[in-house]
Amino acid sequence: MKNISKIIFLENFFKLILKIATLIIIVIFLLMFYSLFERSMPSLMENGFYILFGSSWDPNIKLFGGAPAILGTIISSAIAIAFAFPISLSIAIFYTEYCPLRVRPIISEIMNLLAAIPSVIYGIWGLWTISPIIKLNFQEPIIASIGFIPLFSGPAYGLSIFLASLILTIMITPIIASISMDIFLKTPILLKEAMFALGATKWEVLRHVVIPFARRGILAATILGLGRALGETMAVTMVIGNSYIWPFQSISLFSPATTITSKIASEFPESVIDLMHNSSLMSLALILLLFSISISFITKFIEKGVKYR
Amino acid sequence: MVNMKYLIIGIAVLAIIAGGYFIISSQQVVPVTITSGGATFPYPIVSKWISEYNKRYPHIQISYQPVGSGAGISNLLAKTFDFAGSDAPLTDEQLAKDPVIHIPWTMGGVVVSYNIPGIGSGLKLTPDVIAKIFQGNITKWNDPEITSLNPGINLPDREIVVVRRSDSSGTTYVFTSYLKLASKLWVLGSGTTIRWPVGLGAPGNPGVASTLIQTPYSIGYLEFFYAHNNSIPYAAIKNRDGEFILPSLQTLSNAAKAGAALLSKDVRSAILNLPGKDVYPIAAFTYALVYRDLSYMDINKARAIVNFIWWAIHEGQNYSEALLYPKLPSEVVKIGESLLKQVTHQGRSLI
After folding, report:
1. For residue B80, which residues of chain A lie inside 8 Å, CB to CB?
2. The domain that contains A141 carries what CATH number?
3. Residue numbers of the domain that contains B320
4. What is the 3-state composition of chain B as percent helix, strand, coil, each rounded to the nearest 5?
5. Using CA atoms, how far apart are residues A134 and A9, in angstroms rounded to an integer?
6. Which CATH number belongs to the domain containing residue B186 in this structure?
7. What is the pLDDT of residues A68-116, one digit of tens each?
8. For chain B, how many structural domains are there in total?
9. Shortest Cα–Cα distance, B193 to chain A (Å)
10. What does residue B243 show for φ and ψ, rounded to 5 degrees?
11. Residues ≥6 apart with Cβ < 8 Å to B47
12. Could you report the predicted ipTM of this complex, rounded to two decimals?
């Protein structure tokens, strides 16, 4: 009898610990949300929608428009995803369908290594190595030939929203690729063999079995990559050129720009003595948080659609 | 028996050692730990001072966190730092609320650096031309306004790439304050962050330095020692007396000497664009900030802080030039002395 009550007690105790652990995470999230909101209140009251749509940022005359930073974050991440998505899928398909088994561990090891490199290293590499190469061999020829199109107009700085997107692409490709690889490997062999037995080509098997089966996983991997791109700070700060001229004075992809995270990282340490400046940076952080949350909601929504079809 | 004897001798020796240690340690002064931080600009010299001071007074442990002037000030006001380093002095408004004393403890200068292949230090620039370049009114290196100042130098027909700080910074504050003072053409105002119409933003002095090195035909502003250490060429700037002056430890120190009279009225005065034949026009002090009344802390700690700053502006200055900080002229050291004497603990001076 004694033993049973002890077991029940332990069982309840164990459950309690699990509950507390989960509760802590929820409380931390709410507290973070609350404190961000509270700290951004002064700026939101003062600036209103200007923080979302304004194009000027000048702490000396109390002008805090966040649009260039918000657009910089969105566009650089979007370009990165647009490049990284097809590349990652190609890598994953090659890995699971075409790659000799002996080579597989090498590829997966390299992917893991690339995913684990600290972002500041990507930043230094982008600043010192890639920026001059891109400037000389890519930006300058393009500006010389089709520079009359505003999207590709000069001058070539090297550091630009284009370079930032490129570095982000390199950073998130291994993340999306390695998750997709794992998911592709989980496709039931029976299904694939049945398709082959019916005379399907490799392409048809991919198209009709492997990819539909992995759709949700690929989506999740892409969202994870997008999350990394949106939140990336150090590497982007080092290669984006931190300028507020994009996209209102120049829409060129070769123009230096800025993102929410690089703006916060750059200005936060010295902003603590200026309430409005500080609060405006907090508002930008809040906007980024809301943005990330809404992306994860949209993902849930899409996932449901995928499931019921 | 022999063993017993040795044991007794051993215990006696130990007792003597222990007793001696006890006597010595009871005579030793109480250990003091001081937490400080702030501006990154003086960090190399301050950490040198701290290690040298610690060699002389091992019981005093000082830490200095290079978190930036703004964070230094806010930590001082929150009393989490015992003293702070700041490039920017407090405003009158802040001072009315928090009686803080500014002691100029070292200084520096901002140089206009450039990367034009084949051209070394000494390109001549006037404040008006600098203002126009950084505002985007002059966009080519071979603009007549630059070439006319530099006969004999073959300036290329290339776009000027302006490089400036992306982070809020005391360097930006000094540079823009100078332009505001020296050029009527400067319309962007002054501050730690301003709205730059052109150019690349790079984080910190190291970021600007590496972007300059990476980008041919660029121009930017740097702390003197960053330009000097990275061998990035810098301009000779026309000073108030119409001379083109290259930055150096000497010409910067001249600026401090020229500013001493201003400082004795208000220690927070800028020493920008001062008259004098061999005065470099963009110089600035950086300050140690302490509360005038240190009664809120332990007397030993208060005394240690004041003594350390006193040491820094006297003996400490001997370490300055090796680290490319100009030595404080004696006039400024005197001002520092009289300010330190005003720091009190429960109504009594600490020096």
Report:
1. none
2. 1.10.3720.10
3. 2-106+287-349
4. 45, 20, 35
5. 65
6. 3.40.190.10
7. 999 999 999 999 999 999 999 999 999 988 999 999 999 999 998 998 8
8. 2
9. 7
10. -90, 145
11. B64
12. 0.72
